[in-house]
Structures are given as structure tokens and as C-alpha cells.
Amino acid sequence: MGLDHEAAHREVVRLLGPGDDAEALASIGVDLEAVRGAVESAFGEGALDVPAEEAPERRGWFRSGESKPGRSPFSPGAKKALELSLRESLRLKSREIAVGHLLLGVLREGEGLGVRVVADHGLDVRAVRQAVEAELG
User: Fold this and answer.
1) Model pTM above 0.85
2) Per-residue pLDDT of the chain (137 residues; tens, 9 = 90+)
3) Which long-range contacts (CB under 8 A, 24 or more apart) does 62-69 make?
4) Distance from the Cα of residue 9 to its chain's centroid
5) CATH code, domain carrying 82
6) How many domains does the chain have?
7) CB neighbours (10 Å) of residue 27?
8) Using CA atoms, how far apart are residues 133 and 135, in angstroms rounded to an integer?
9) Is 91 helix (H, G, I), strand (E, B) or coil?
10) Contact of 115 with 109, CB cutoff 8 Å
11) Can you tell me the distance from the alpha carbon of 97 to that of 77, in angstroms, rounded to the nearest whole number?
């Protein structure tokens, strides 16, 4: 619908400022270890793990031991969006949480940075939601 990764990234950087992706996610309340825990509780231990020979170069978002003890970088809105992503995946009878499910969760949450980027780009949130659902089947 005309909003690609690069355009969305530029808008997020404009709104949040430059920085490490994990740091930017933490600043809006995303605790990547909690994401792993939620996914593994729904889909089984190691659901996010990829065999080393198939694994792309990663920045460490889902590696254990990366989060700071005693600190939950998830905001209530981010927690809600992630929970809704899982619900969208289950509703659509998916065996994984794909990027589309995450986007559906962000759109369904309706108040965070992601939905702001979509709306600021001039897109109708309902139309984006319908297109993503159609793509996911």
C-alpha cells in the first residue's frame, strides 16, 4: 500500500530519533525477552529458534540474557500489541507469529507508534488491516 520498511523506518527514526533498534524498541516498551516467553508459551520452547546453518545474521533481539534484570522495557501499549499479535495468529489458525500478525496486533491496539506511522502515511487503518488479513489467508 506504499508504506515499505524503509519509509516506515525513516518515520520511526524521525519520531524517536536515531539509535540501536533494540534500544528504540525498549524506549517504546518492547521487552524482547517477554516476546520470546509469550511465543514459547503458545507455540513451544524454541519456537523462535532457527538452526544455525539457516539463521540470518541477527542483532540479538531474541538471544537469552540480553534484557536487564528487574527492568521491563514493555509499555502497556506494547504488551497489548504483542498479546493481540498472538491472538491474531491464533484467530487465523497460523502456526507462527509472522510480521503480518505483529502488524495486525499493532493496528488492533490502535494507539501506538506503529498505527501513527500508518495513519501519518495517509493509509486507512481498516484497509491496511483487511489487506494484511487477505495476505495471511
Assistant:
1) no
2) 888 888 888 887 787 776 666 666 666 667 777 777 777 787 778 777 765 555 455 444 444 444 445 555 567 777 888 889 999 999 999 888 888 898 899 888 888 888 888 888 899 999 989 998 998 88
3) 62/32, 62/35, 62/36, 64/33, 64/36, 66/22, 66/32, 66/33, 67/31, 67/32, 67/33
4) 13
5) 1.10.1780
6) 1
7) 15
8) 5
9) helix
10) yes
11) 18
Q: Domain limits at 128?
A: 5-136
86: cell is: 498472538
CA gap 126, 61 in Å, rounded: 30
The residue behind cell 498479546 is 83
Grid coordinates belonging to 54:
539457516
How many Å apart are CA 120 and CA 89, to the nearest integer? 26
Residue with cell 538471544: 63
Which residues have C-beta within 8 Å of that of residue 48, sequence separation ≥ 6? Answer: 36, 39, 40, 62
Cell 524506549 found at: 27
Single-letter amino acid, residue 87: R
Q: Residue 25 has which C-alpha cell? A: 524498541
Q: How many residues does the chain have?
A: 137
Cell of residue 45, nine digits = 520452547
CA distance 117 to 92: 25
